[in-house]
Amino acid sequence: TLQQANAMSRLGTETAFEVLARAKALEAQGRSIINLGIGQPDFLTPDHIVEAAVKALHDGQHGYTPANGIPSLREAVSAYLHKQYAADVDPSRVVVVPGGKVTMFFAILMFGEPGAEIIYPNPGFPIYESMIRFTGAKPVPLPLLEKNGFGFDAETLLSLITVKTRLIILNSPANPTGGVTEKSEIDNLVRGLEAFPKVAILSDEIYSRLLYDGRKHTSLLSYPELEDRLILLEGWSKTYAMTGWRMGYGVWPKQLVEGATRLAVNSNSCVNAAAQFAGIAALEGPQDSVDGMQRAFDARRRFLVERLNQIPGVSCVEPGGAFYAFPNIANTGLTAKQVELGLLDQAGVATIAGTSFGAHGEGYVRLSYANSMENIEIALQRIQEWLESHQ
Ligand code: PLP
């Protein structure tokens, strides 16, 4: 047998991809499966964005680009962030990468090593914990609680910081819960962090354009005092329905830009050149499709949450953002994994057990409402029938 590096045994995965594979296999056997498992918009990338990539290809944009991204794209990102948050971000601090995930990968590689501690949300995007373990650093979970609408609590977070803490990962709006952290809590955190100037922050704001009920996104970028230690993770995947294009970016503190760019040179070299031109069109072009998708998600969200709360044994807090609901199923007497497997194999609905997002996810399942209203209606009927006959 081949001898793999020890670190490989510590590398986890994202169960969403396994559930997707199982759902596809069941479909191939002729079963009807409604997929509320995968977290990607069910919309197509808007036409004007696709056209920009086609044009770039015809214009001969076929070669490597600078590793940190083409200058006009980094300028477009800077202008976008100014428009959204009145933030002053020099384009030299923007590093374009193949998907939001890669900024996460780079930041955790940059700070993680044996002896270091990294605080991360739990339940949270599974790659945080996986990557932290891979580097040999100690993962320190920040529990996110239903009673706080799954937003983080600044006091709890600050109490987890030790002399070994190198990095804190934040995510709002959040996967898998749809939780949105209140601005007042972020204010408290930023104030509290003054006492810990050596701790870096990775703020995963990939769902920044998906908020509901009139909420406004609070970006960590709007706190200039964090400029020297904030890494902003953003991208095109969720906002512009571009998951398959692999386009994301990080805004890095000045002193970390060189390291992030070196990581890019050592891994992806650059992002697909034509996709970068599409990225410019997305940021600079009309935003009506973004608003249209947000409205469609909102209508599904309301319907989904209302219907979930009608199912005996299930209760669901209203998610403030992203496109996930995270119903509490503890009163059904079933574990999260039992519900996930039963719903997929017997009821034909793909969901993801809360435990796939960390130990604090027990008692919950994640449902993505990035699916048509019609499918969501059928799925809820199936979920209700299955749960009523299994508790
Ligand atoms: N961060 C969070 C919280 C996510 O949910 C996702 C995707 O599911 C990502 C990052 C990764 O996005 P991308 O597809 O752009 O790599």
Automatic annotation (TrEMBL):
Organism of derivation: Limibacillus halophilus
Domain annotation Aminotransferase class I/classII large: ranges: 32-383
Family recorded in the similarity comment: Belongs to the class-I pyridoxal-phosphate-dependent aminotransferase family.
UniProt key word Transferase: yes
Taxonomy, superkingdom: Bacteria
Protein's recorded name: aspartate transaminase
InterPro entries named among the record's database cross-references: Aminotransferase_I/II_large, AspAT/PAT-like, PyrdxlP-dep_Trfase, PyrdxlP-dep_Trfase_major, PyrdxlP-dep_Trfase_small
An annotated Gene Ontology molecular function: pyridoxal phosphate binding
Cofactor (UniProt): pyridoxal 5'-phosphate
Keywords associated with the record: Aminotransferase, Pyridoxal phosphate, Transferase
GO biological process, any: amino acid metabolic process
EC code: 2.6.1.1
CDD domains (UniProt xref): AAT_like
Catalyses which reaction(s): L-aspartate + 2-oxoglutarate = oxaloacetate + L-glutamate
